[in-house]
Amino acid sequence: MRKMFALAPIMFLAACEAASPPPPANPMPAPAEDTCNASAYSNLIGQDVTALERVMLLGQVRVIRPGQAVTMDYRPNRINFNVGEGNRITSIHCS
Description:
Elements: H1 2-18, E1 61-64, E2 79-83, E3 89-94
Parallel strand pairs: 1-2
Antiparallel strand pairs: 2-3
């Protein structure tokens, strides 16, 4: 009987170690490739942000400047233009 009580803590720890963490409650969907047609505007990378004024942009667009707070909502059809310190477009992506 004593041996059984001595093994109980070891069996308990082994059971705890085998458990895997639960999956995230609401995982973000994996971003699809170019869902917002960002590649069509790749020629704007390196240009001044004012170049956006000369381009017809239909749909959801977001210009993100350095240090600006942005929402974490996922919108696959939204085009994001990231602007660097020199007021130049540094990257373009969907989300």
